[in-house]
Amino acid sequence: MIKAIVTDIEGTTSSIDFVHQTLFPYAKQHLRRYLHAHADEPNVVAQIAAAAALEGRSFASIDEAADLLERWIAEDRKATPLKDLQGLIWAEGYAAGELSGHVYADTPVFLRQWHAAGKALYVYSSGSEGAQKLIFGHSDAGDLRPLFSGYFDTRIGMKREAQSYRTILERIHLPGDAVLFLSDIGEELDAAREAGMQTCQLIRDAKAKAFPAHRQARDFSEVPV
What we know:
This protein is an alpha/beta fold. Helices cover about 45% and strands about 10% of the residues.
């Protein structure tokens, strides 16, 4: 019996295009200005230092740090310092009403249905925990955050590594066969299954690469819970 559902965001609850065509360009457009405006804030200082450490170098200026981070955005790097900074920038955008979190029409319907049925809901995304809360807190369907019991990001590990999913199971205190992981990415599903979780691949559009080894669903109405 499924007691908890862990869901990805891109291509699962929300459109990949929203992330890549709206969120990423917004962060890139405002990154350099944001770094200069908040250069003395401890969290920003810490993320710049973490980015420098990942590169094995130091930055001579804020603009040099911005150059690297903009390149990482273009490369879609899953680097935690970048994800945290993107989340801070998006927070400004949501607060200003310039951004609204996209979710598929069926997403809030079935999240509420599963929650009402007693399923614990969690998010695991490469986006920072803060960015995850922004998408669901400012979604097109309203504030969905009360439906979730927790959020996981790359601080627990990368999404294609089985150990990341073992850590999630330890954190939520459930055996793998009681947890269903939802994603559009086959390699992530492979890692979750290796950790003992049940899996289902969302095939929402033609961009999704089918992995027949996993159960598949075109939307949340077809997810076996």
